[in-house]
Amino acid sequence: MSLVAAGGLLLAGCGAGSGELAAEEPTGPRSGPQREFDPDRDDSIFGEGGFSIGTLNEVFGGGESDRKGAIPVNKFLWQASLDTLSFLPLASTDPFTGVIATDWGMTPEAEGERFKVTAYLLNTELSASSLKVAVYRERLNESGVWAPAEVNPETARKLEDAILTRARQLRLASDGTTTTG
């Protein structure tokens, strides 16, 4: 330890010119973990109350463990939402909050219109109360500018029905098979 201190003092005494003091190097926290993560001992990779490995397992189909840090979503509703909304480009998907958002997309049937959809998965049940869909619509006006347009309330309901139907199909298809992981 005293050798390191003596070396530090020697370097600090070396100035760039006469009468100048060398600038001190900024110090901060040392990089790297204080200790390595042990999955058998540690529940969280970010310390106590942090993000849980168990949450990752549950969201991505792992085993049953503590649910910390995420809203659990129904895996069939999640996949069915992705399948049903695949006709639109995806803007973002977040399985931890249960939100799937599409970007603006057009359909051949509706020329001069574009649509955007956000699906909210609210819990683990495979039921209508676990899903909320919001639809946004814009029309191209005479000036060539996209302007918000009214959306038929039935559109969101029809998308919700299509997602729920697909989710039930996925669940029935998985009942006869066993998966490991």
Automatic annotation (TrEMBL):
Region span, Disordered: 18-43
Composition bias, Basic and acidic residues: 33-43
Pfam name, any one: DUF3576
Domain of life: Bacteria
Protein name: DUF3576 domain-containing protein
